[in-house]
Amino acid sequence: xxxxxxxxxxxxxxxxxxxxxxxxxxxxxxxxxxxxxxxxxxxxxxxxxxxxxxxxxxxxxxxxxxxxxxxxxxxxxxxxxxxxxxxxxxxxxxxxxxxxxxxxxxxxxxxxxxxxxxxxxxxxxxxxxxxxxxxxxxxxxxxxxxxxxxxxxxxxxxxxxxxxxxxxxxxxxxxxxxxxxxxxxxxxxxxxxxxxxxxxxxxxxxxxxxxxxxxxxxx
Length: 219
Fold this sequence. Notes:
Radius of gyration: 18 Å
Order of helices and strands: HEEEEHHEHEEEEE
CATH class: Alpha Beta
Structural class: alpha/beta
Largest sheet: 6 strands, mixed
CATH architecture: 4-Layer Sandwich
Mean pLDDT: 81
Strand order of the largest sheet: 1-2-3-4-5-6
Number of helices: 4
């Protein structure tokens, strides 16, 4: 398994890290996690969707940061617009594309945050601030919403390790016929607002055979 581990890379790509009051040369929050195996990208996880880089320069099917064939999971921390502005546009582009998906893209967001976000988008549409692909998304077999409902914590005593977390999803990423990565996604309430989530991703390497199955923690 150590040989296999040496072939793996897990990279965090900041596409934007600015809060609401950004400057001319800053972009709102979006982070891309890329899993690379034998020098080839095989899986992408997006955290937040606050800026246009997630759409790629010439559309979702063009060359850019996001590869729609590899983007399998989207994590949203909370509903504030500097973290979600281009979420619907990204999902609508994917839904309307002619790409075939073996499984739907998972979107994980706090249940109440999703309600607030949909209400905000509806108001923008009524005010005619809409643009192509800006409208509310429709149900699609290409997307799956996971909506944990975690109670707010006392911000004065916040500690990720102390407070109970819930496991919201396990991702299984195949490397070959016998080995794969398990990404365990846990969440708890973040201190930013009552409907915000703090995520913890645990990466494990699994090797299976007919006789046994072994795990190795990556990080």
